[in-house]
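agent> Task received from the user: take the single chain below, predict its 3D structure, and emit structure tokens. No templates, no multimer pairing.
agent> Plan: (1) validate residues, (2) run structure prediction, (3) serialize to tokens, (4) report one or two observations.
agent> Step 1 OK, no nonstandard residues flagged.
tool_call: predict_structure(input=
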Amino acid sequence: MGRTGAGSLAGNKAVSQGELARNGMNDKASEMMEEEREALAADWADICVGLRKDLGQQLYGQWIRPVELGNFCRETGTLDLYLPTEFSANWVNDRFADRLSLAWKIARSEVRNVRISVHPGRRKLPDIHVGPAAANDHTPQPTNPADAIAELGSAGLDPSLTFATFVTGEGNVLAYNAAQRMAASETPQFSPLYLKAATGQGKTHLLHAIGHQFAAAKPGSRIFYCSAERFMVEFVQALRQNQMIEFKSRLRGFDMLLVDDIQFIIGKASAQEELLYTIDALLAEGKRLGFAADRAPQALDGVEPRLLSRLSMGLVADIQAADIDLRRKILEHRLTRFTSNDVPDDVIEFLARTISRNVRELVGGLNKLIAYAQLTGQPVSLNLAEEQLTDILSANRRRITIDEIQRTVCQFYRLDRSEMASKRRARAVVRPRQVAMYLAKVLTPRSYPEIGRKFGGRDHSTVIHAVRLIEDLRARDADMDGDVRSLLRQLES
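)
tool_result: status=success, residues=493
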């Protein structure tokens, strides 16, 4: 009691006025720094508007949008701008440094220098040595120089990204089957395989799976997986060190070459030419090639026509965005990895329905939710999902209106739109109306009374009855469940 009574109060009184003053100064400095960050962000937003107009949406989106504001040093007048990769930082620095520096000087006179570099928190890429090992490197070196990159390339394959962990659906089954053919022991009918998909839809997963499966089918095969950025970095390094002969001989010694994010091969014509010659050499020897990008070969900017021709000469397999059925399957498959997977069905349905932009965000949302629940000891619930996944959900949520739901339901059941608010009690009218009420509750944030008003001023109890009835029918009537699933796909697409 003594420690928490008068002695504690006396200790509190002993806090010096100087310490209070310092704390006040620190708080004021923090406020000033926060204000400066906000002002810089506002200036950057204005600069971006002008750059988007000058460069066009495509160039701006690919190179300027990823730029992040860094620190600003008032003493030197230097502002740091960060990009996620070494290649993109060099590319922007080479082409836009003067333009960015001028724009900042106009927007804010105290900015005298702009420094463009890689974000300090980025993941470091593994080194791939194309020349002799450094003198202080005591790692045993393979006797065959081509095996040096082969071992590192195989090590670069993620062990979790296999065909066994890839969940298939209507939108990705073609790419999945083509990838399996590419990895089989029999010679594929096509090469190269070009996987085209938006971010987070599984193209990188399939590239890794091809490498793993081919290594199992043909033990001892030399496999090289890299990003296009990595290829460019290693090419430039070999060029500067006068090791192009070694680089070429090692690169062409592989049995399988897998290059991810091929859209970043734009730029240096010499690197494109080397990749072109490598493709020709490997194809001539019956080797296998796989590429992945976020756009079709013909849509790649700044790529030589001859290289475009090689990239598209095999099979171009498109991976469509995962529909809600596939998103459910992915979540259910992911749950098998957790020792404790007590996730209610309504949470799975909510995540599958709401996080629709890409599979990576979907799985990341589930992982975050389960991790938070385990660390805090809370049960997984809808409320917890909505509370902890705010950023992901807001980025994915497309606002669907009750008017849109009514219009879609009427088209589906071939009804006149006026029937949604009519007093008719015929079954052919009542059931679609109830389905629309159910969808309005599931897909919009509207309350029962608000929904009722949109359906001819009906009472909230009528809406509650409709929602419960459709939920019950979905559980025991396959036709009704199929109708609702079809309508959900239409409305969420």
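agent> Step 4: summary for the user.
The longest helix spans residues 17-55.
agent> Done.
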